[in-house]
Amino acid sequence: MLLKPQVLERITDADGKVLYQFEGAGPGRRVVRLETARRLIEQALTGVVLRGTGKAANFGTYPKFGKTGTAQKVSTTGGFAHSRFISSFLCGAPVDNPRITVLVLMDEPRAGASYYGGTVAAPAAARIVERTLKYLHAPVMTTVAKAADL
Prior knowledge:
The protein is an alpha+beta fold. It has one domain: Beta-lactamase, CATH 3.40.710. Residues 143-150 have low confidence and may be disordered. It is globular. It has a three-stranded antiparallel β-sheet with strand order 3-4-5. It has helices spanning 34-50, 117-120, 122-135, 143-148; strands at 10-12, 18-21, 65-74, 80-93, 100-107.
């Protein structure tokens, strides 16, 4: 679904009185068939977390799906810089009924010798997903076993 991004739901005062209620983002419009989206999540993106470059996100209570990214930055002298990167990890969960997606981007990460999205961004994105779903009291799903068999 293509949704209009919304950061705030409402503004309240110190006593909890609603000062301003933002208009909801609405239902959005479908841009990918539901079956196509399910297959992409259950087969391709879950595999990234279970067996691929996003294995560092495979922990916690909720089965996650994700996609890593590592891009060289443009050099000031032309071409690509060989030691400057943007690393990313897009992570979502639960696999059965996604409720949240998180994108972590790191501009020129400094995590030891690694700069890969699966190494430096995946753990942070997965922790944010885990904590947010626990905060939302999301039910635990068991798709990891099913996805692992694909």
